[in-house]
Design a protein that fits this description.
By secondary structure, the chain is of the alpha+beta class. The chain is built from six helices and ten strands. Strands 4-10-9-8-7-6-5 form a seven-stranded antiparallel beta sheet.
Amino acid sequence: MGVQGYPCREAYGLIFVFPGDQTHLASVAFPDIRTRGDSNYKTRYLDRQIACHYSFMHKNLMDMNHQFLHRKLMGRIKTVFLALRQGENWVEADYTFTRAKGSQPLGEKFILGARSEQSGENNRDLMTIRTDYPYQTLKFWTAGSTEPALDLWNVYVPVDQDQRIHHTFGMIMVRKPSTPRLINLLWPFITWFTESIFKQDRLIVEAEQRAFDQQGADWNQEISSVILALRKVLIDRGTPLQNDAQNNSRIAAP
């Protein structure tokens, strides 16, 4: 089976097309999304077009310091960076969070479950975000849990020659509560909450793209070790535009 002469494979309810050098097909790892087929999780698909370069999406998710922009939905939480790991074509970062003020919002509680006040290294939530080019994942474990409460998988596919627009395809796997059927009652609230978060994220990344276009280059003076490592992966693994003097700036847009 193929699409316009390219090999493809159907999995996880999606069709994966390999448009690259077909001699490398056997050596390219296929996504391993184990929670997608786990009956303990319910899946929500993401399918949307966004007016920005795909690198802005990788940066937005990887940099958890932007969570203050979601404070109307998530309350006042403090992001705590824990660790950075990286390889030739991947980078991942660990974070945990503390609530600076207020109580846990209902939307967050429905997705992640009730979260108690944390104290000590062994009693804290853990979020791991990974760009394993070209895919990106986010996993969230509540304190003391061995299975993630939330598992997100995304891929960002450019749709125009200038790579100013991309299509996000993704899946959110939410772990079912102890009474599994309750997830169906909670699902409309979970959908509303995630859509509200995504709406704010869209405003952020599209504004960043407009700023980049107005400046004609990336003027950010980035100091975050996580984003610098992410940039290197995107530059090294991404395919630059042809005949474009701004190639590196475009690929390094975040």
